[in-house]
Write a structure and sequence with these properties.
Two copies of one chain form a homodimer.
Chain A: E1 6-10, E2 14-17, H1 24-30, E3 49-54, H2 64-69, H3 72-77, E4 79-81, E5 91-96, E6 123-129, H4 141-153, E7 159-160, H5 162-174, E8 178-184, E9 188-194, E10 202-208, E11 212-219, E12 225-232, H6 242-251, H7 253-278, E13 285-292, H8 294-300, E14 321-324, H9 325-328, E15 337-340, H10 350-359, E16 368-372, E17 376-382, E18 387-393, E19 413-419, E20 426-430, E21 438-439, H11 441-453, E22 472-474, E23 479-484, E24 495-498, H12 499-523, E25 532-536, H13 537-542, H14 545-550, E26 562-565, H15 568-578, H16 580-592, E27 594-595, H17 604-611
Parallel strand pairs in A: 1-5, 7-9, 10-13, 13-15, 16-25, 18-27, 19-21, 25-26
Antiparallel strand pairs in A: 1-2, 3-4, 3-5, 6-8, 8-9, 10-11, 11-12, 14-15, 16-17, 17-18, 19-20, 22-23, 23-24
Helix pairs in contact in A: 6-7, 10-15, 10-16, 12-17, 15-16
The structure holds FE2/S2 (inorganic) cluster (2 copies).
């Protein structure tokens, strides 16, 4: 390790070289040092807490958001959020990762920053010194450029964008015949600039989530994310989940236009914000890459998602598309393209393609199962020879919907629950270490798993009637288990989990398990054949895999085979922005993968019925 | 000949089969029956006079413009203008071509309608019956289309335009899965329509002349021109000729935008007019083709023509370009392209490429010389092995500019002049057979030739002082020859030709002859090697080749080797609209042709000096 430059000493773990401008989370992840993170460094989960013991002068100053997320005492103790804290100076920084921030070993967060991608963006810049036009060398402007670019860089048969063409005569002469051309895909000259601007080449990647937009400004010369931001998806007002959003868009062409405009406007705002942050001009952005589920993709590109919502649930286009950003109203370089990652099916979108790329199952010899858990859950089974996918509407319970005290995974949500099988007493952990307001998806799964393991509910999901615990409250309408007593909570009410909540989760897990078993049945494999289980998506990343297995969400697969894929859509969008090969890989995955429509799968109902049991009808011998 | 359908009996010439909807001029030209025409059937020259002796009930009714162009007596005698008169009914029509309308044999008008082009437009329509989407056949909309079009028509790797994509899901379902796709260049699906619309496929060709725009609405299924129109080029207000137009555009980006807007607006008006006439919707036009000189081309596409006007006089782009019509503001199908024919050099444009294609010299074994005479004159020498071009600014005299009684070739212009060498008396012929108002280019050349042949001027262009004729008026300032006496004219003044006028024409012909001799010198050929001389362009079509040779505009080439190429730009635009092969040929011509810059040609001044003499310094033995 060189002596100059910043050093990050992760106390008790290892010393690593720091990189100025990068945040601690980013550096740690790249060094395989785990720090808790749910939002993958987007600054919204407040989980990446670290304590700076020395060298704070080499770090970016405390931000207002950190002041909000961290308590006074914590701030005094030197707490920072790792993803907000950038290395800015040379010298050693001593960082302590407190126990609450140590990622549990099985939670291998594979977020975008960890996927290694060979830098090879679809747009490139070339500096050209043109021979000056004279009466002895009367090549036309464009021919002159073509000749030099062919000679110096071997590029042939280029076309030129309209805006570049009309600017061409002035640009080459005002720059004394020294120009930089921006070439896309070795085919089209998008833009021509005066002088040597090769150092400045930028792209924008966006993960269009149903509830959240995450945007990344990327330096295409280095692949570095220069700035990132996340916005709520402004479409949420018109439908919180995909189905209601699609229903709204279907009603009227105007509704579609409205949803499209909202997300495009938000994109433009994000671009403005990031450009300002990183001192980049929007017109220096030459490529945009978009990943999201199929419905979000279609609305983003102004394609009616109507038929995704109607049987047979088809996307209009599956393959990756490149549309001029100006056609979409995105304000970047006038001739930049917007690339949409491919979709597999109406409910298996680019986000699932990104999961596959991130997990690498499409290149692996081992048979792997991938489950991206969400209100719509995508399931992929296969290896490098064959891939089968399906999707299943798991419903909103996974995000806290339809659950009495359910809430999203935000500050104040109970995120983990455990129940003592002897005493039936509960323990829990709250996001942000504040008083709880409710329980989020991961804790909901924990609760059902622990109620079952503690024998409080049976395999039908019914509360046993013979139990006597103050935690179990019964009235005529419902039975419920108290997770947190009123005085421990921020809402001054008992936070409970009801018999009805249990049934909701039984249906969710039945839906998911049906998909899993259907693809297994279709491919004629047993749990023993599955060498890897990838839990993917925002939810999959922080669900306790043991709890999920206990309730039978997936088959009997040893926990050491479980891996986590964070929310891969953002990583996919970034990877596709900086790598043509990733685009090709995505396209290959799309072409290769089979899609199984569950609703017409012959054994669908049979599997579903069995899957409602805890953990699974034929798996009662299953190790819990 | 079949008995049903219309028959056109050209009295004393031959009987031919008529085609309903076509005009008499068109039919005659296709049958090699010559009827006078300067405007190539655009309805502006009033030269295509014919007398209908029988069967007028089978013809379209007399138009208002014909009533303007023809006198009362003529109308009573059955005069019509052939290009206005369409065959509409069955039965025989007896047509007499009066002597004034019989094209002189050497005036082989090769207008667009005569160039035979294999029909193979760049856009084509395909009708597809798609298998309906079901849960058993879940191919995405676009994939489904690709599969069927590949299976039925062998087209692969198609892309889809943005507007077509966003309309796709609704169109295919609302049409019960029966659609027509519009494909460009076997590559891009431009548009998708409901049901079978293959019968309706249209294109628009425009010849962007410096003074006139000629537009043609073409049925791309048949290659037929459905309707045509011509407008004055509205840019003329800002500069009558190319040089002044370019000078205006150079001054300010706003000027360029203004000129561009004027021509685009006119294009839109033409399209509206023609569509209305032919009952075609503008959105059924899927391709536009544009030909014009390089400056007009650049302004049309919004490219600054500044550097065409400044040494080394370079176009920005030479190769044929395809730009979306919407980028230019042309209101046709939203995804249609506008194709611009290739340019060779700043002053050798697509109009010259069209000349070459029309003459066929690029495919001929014979060495041919082509001269497109105009205020800027293009010269091409060569054959299928080699082509050399140059251009020379001949000045406005050719269009009547800087000539005392000069005028454009319009009604009232003297178009031919002859002088009796004995009596020195003059005869002349006026366009429209009215009283003359002035003399146009062809008569100007005649006048100089006849003054020289009649020994009134010497080879220096000087009026001989020893002549005594009332036609020669001398005053202290000038000497002039009276072509028409005041009482014969519509202006009540003598129409004369002055010594200064002679000098103007000496300079014009010197410029042209310098170009001709430079390319001959460069290619090391003598007049004897030249097997064909093509006189091209609006002017070249009606100049008397003998007069032109007499003054030495071109070398001693026997008159039987002379051929005429009409204004080929319109024909070129139409041919490129209906034929991919023509576009390829044009591109090959562009790539192959050499351009000789006269101003730096070593012998330029030497040749020019000699060329000012009548007919040419070293050619005094030349047969006149
Ligand atoms: S990782 Fe820092 S706040 Fe989520
Ligand atoms: S040919 Fe008919 S008016 Fe010119």
């Amino acid at each position: 390790m060189s002596n100059s430059g910043p050093i990050l000493n992760f106390e008790g773990i290892k010393k690593v070289k720091g990189i100025k401008g990068k945040d601690i989370l980013n550096i740690a992840v790249n060094e395989n040092i785990y720090i808790s993170s749910i939002c993958a460094g987007r600054g919204s989960c407040a989980k990446c807490r670290v304590i700076i013991k020395k060298g704070e002068e080499n770090l970016s100053p405390l931000t207002n958001l950190e002041k909000t997320y961290l308590s006074k005492e914590e701030l005094e103790q030197g707490y920072r959020l790792a993803c907000y804290t950038k290395v800015i100076g040379d010298g050693e920084i001593l960082i302590y990762i407190p126990p609450e921030s140590r990622a549990e070993p099985q939670k291998m967060l594979i977020s975008g920053i960890q996927v290694k991608v060979k830098l090879n963006p679809v747009v490139k810049k070339y500096f050209l010194k043109l021979p000056k036009a004279t009466l002895e060398d009367m090549r036309q402007d464009w021919e002159r450029i073509c000749d030099v670019i062919k000679e110096n860089y071997g590029l042939k048969d280029l076309s030129i964008s309209y805006e570049a063409l009309i600017n061409l005569p002035n640009v080459i002469r005002e720059s004394q015949w020294c120009i930089t051309v921006v070439v896309r895909d070795n085919k089209e000259v998008l833009w021509i600039e005066k002088g040597d601007t090769t150092a400045r080449l930028f792209g924008f990647a966006i993960d269009v989530g149903t509830t959240k937009l995450a945007g990344y400004l990327v330096d295409l010369n280095t692949g570095e994310v220069l700035a990132s931001t996340s916005y709520p998806n402004p479409q949420a007002t018109y439908g919180g989940d995909v189905a209601s959003r699609v229903a709204f868009a279907m009603k009227d062409q105007k509704n579609l236009s409205l949803l499209n405009k909202l997300v495009i406007d938000a994109t433009n705002e994000m671009i403005m914000e990031l450009c300002e942050k990183a001192k980049v001009k929007p017109e220096e952005i030459y490529e945009i890459s978009v990943a999201g589920n199929t419905a979000m993709h279609h609305i983003y590109f102004g394609i009616n998602p109507k038929y995704i919502g109607l049987s047979p649930y088809l996307p209009t286009i599956g393959q990756g598309i490149s549309i001029k950003a100006k056609e979409l109203g995105i304000k970047v370089n006038k001739e930049a393209y917007t690339y949409g990652l491919p979709n597999i099916a109406g409910f298996v979108g680019a986000d699932a393609v990104a999961d596959i790329l991130a997990s690498g199952i499409h290149k692996s010899d081992e048979l792997s199962l991938l489950i991206d858990i969400g209100t719509n859950t995508e399931i992929v089974l296969g290896n490098k020879d064959r891939l089968v996918s399906c999707s299943t509407p798991a419903g909103p319970a996974i995000e806290g919907g339809h659950i009495k005290y359910g809430m999203r995974a935000e500050i104040g949500a109970i995120e983990h629950v455990w129940i003592d099988p002897e005493t039936h007493e509960a323990g829990y952990k709250v996001i942000g270490d504040v008083k709880p307001r409710g329980i989020c998806g991961s804790a909901i799964i924990d609760t059902v798993a622990h109620l079952y393991k503690a024998n409080i509910i049976d395999s039908n999901g019914t509360f046993r009637s013979n139990l006597n615990s103050k935690r179990i409250k019964r009235d005529t309408a419902n039975t419920e288990y108290v997770i947190a007593w009123a005085d421990e909570t921020a809402i001054n009410r008992d936070i409970t989990f009801t018999a009805k909540d249990v049934r909701e989760i039984q249906l969710v897990k039945a839906a998911i398990r049906t998909g899993v078993n259907a693809v297994m049945d279709y491919m004629k494999v047993t749990p023993k054949d599955i060498k890897r289980l990838y839990l993917a998506g925002g939810f999959g990343t922080y669900v306790d895999p043991q709890s999920a297995r206990t309730i039978g969400m997936y088959p009997d697969i040893p926990l050491e085979r479980v891996r986590f894929v964070g929310n891969a859509a953002g990583a996919g969008a970034k990877a596709a922005l900086i790598s043509k090969e990733i685009r090709e890989e995505a396209e290959e995955v799309r072409k290769k993968i089979e899609y199984l429509e569950l609703s017409i799968y012959p054994k669908f109902l049979e599997i579903f019925m069995k899957a409602t049991y805890l953990p699974f009808k034929e798996d009662l011998g299953f190790p819990i």
